[in-house]
Every structure is written in C-alpha cells, then in structure tokens.
TrEMBL record:
Gene3D superfamilies: 3.40.1800.20. The keyword Zinc-finger applies. GO terms for molecular function: zinc ion binding. Zn(2+) binds at residues 14, 17, 59, 62. This is ZAD domain-containing protein. Residues 12-86 form the ZAD domain. InterPro entries: Znf_AD (IPR012934). The keyword Transferase does not apply. Pfam families: zf-AD. Keywords: Metal-binding, Zinc, Zinc-finger.
Length: 118
C-alpha cells in the first residue's frame, strides 16, 4: 500500500532549472503568494503565464537564488534613486544635508563637474 504510492512520486520539474525535485512550490499557491514569487520572477528574462503549458513549480534552490537576485535588484533600484536625487540636489554644485549621499566623498561627481571643456 505505502510502497505502491512511493513509486509514483517522481517529483516536479522546476520551471527555472528544469530539474526534477520533490520539494517544490507551486507558483499559484498561497505559499508562493506570500513569498511574492511571481513578482520576483517577473524580473527574470522569462515570461510565466498561468495557462502556458510549462511547469508551474519552482524548487527551493531556485527560490533561494531568486531571493538573492530580487534583493540585489531592489538594492540597485534604491541606489539609483539616491544617486538621482543626489544629482538633483547637486545642481548648485554642493551637497546639502537633505541629500541622501551627504557626507559621502563622491569623487566621481567632482571629477565630472570639474572636467568642463574650456
Ligand atoms: Zn529549480
Ligand atoms: Zn549629494
């Protein structure tokens, strides 16, 4: 009885690494929703649609990699935002205290502003 069931558990194919894993999370499950998996997968160069004929499961290894990649992207976006506002604040050539990068020695900035063609 019990052994009969086991023979049929071959695992699921992971959408991201194509490996067959026993422990996977379905992309449209509650668990995936709480982990924001779909949101994170949107940042990848693939498209996942609910009714495409492709695997809807993702393995634990890939979730881990996805988390790392997601936090990296968030960090880059945040940093980009800070640098942009740094630029806006610097329109007068100084770094005021309101600037998120205030106090940071930003040599790239001064090089850029000094190297005006004369
Ligand atoms: Zn995987
Ligand atoms: Zn600044």
């Amino acid at each position: 009885m019990g052994s009969y069931d086991k023979a049929f558990i071959v695992g699921y194919v992971c959408r991201l690494c194509s490996e067959q894993k026993k422990k996977v999370i379905h992309l449209y499950s509650n668990k995936a929703q709480s982990l924001k998996l779909l949101e994170k997968i949107e940042l990848l160069p693939i498209k996942v649609e609910k009714f495409d004929n492709l695997p809807k499961t993702i393995c634990e290894n890939c979730i881990e990699r996805l988390e790392i990649q997601y936090s990296l992207i968030q960090k880059i976006q945040k940093s980009n935002l800070i640098q942009r506002s740094h630029r806006i604040y610097h329109s007068n050539g100084r770094c005021p205290i309101e600037c998120p990068l205030h106090g940071i020695n930003d040599s790239s900035w001064s090089v850029q502003s000094d190297s005006s063609v004369s």
